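Human: I would love a firmer grasp of how sequence relates to backbone shape in proteins. Could you go through the record with me and say what the backbone is doing? Here is the record:
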Amino acid sequence: MAEVTNESWIRAGFTELARSGVDGVRVEVLAKHLGVTKGGFYRRFRDRAALLSEMLNEWSRGRIVAIEQQASLDGESAHDRLKGLILLYSERMNTEGMAIELAVRQWARSDEAAARAVAGVDAARLKNVAQLYRATGLSPEEADAQAFLFYCFIFGQSLLFLERGSRRRAQLVAKSAAKLLEEPG
């Protein structure tokens, strides 16, 4: 049997977080899913709070690194990078990632540490996307507003269920994305 590492416990914690919220992230449940005893958990973590803290750190670090990489120009224009980000987040739905995102945000409604983690991730996301918008020629205030709209769109469109199916959804996403990519006038 493979060793159950800290990372294994954290991954199992995220799976359970996405499935049943922070209250469902319990040592007994995770141990059962991993096929080990609770003692294995306590050899890795002081207590449940330590695991939850590590989960928040991992989520926060991962989201910040992701947006920094995704917003990096790497020879592309800012406009093309923004277009790529919109396509990345609107064309293929990462249902597990979205479930974790929503669960962490729900957790943040009642936990100060989770709220700080979410605020830090949101700040990094908005900063990186605003920098891209500034590179298109927008003023700092306009770029900040566009970055805010960008994230309202990215998260909002992923939560909407449309009656007319995937083709209609794709059309709406494309038209909305075009609005977010309009050149400053």
Observations:
- The first helix runs from residue 6 to 20.
- The radius of gyration is 19 Å.
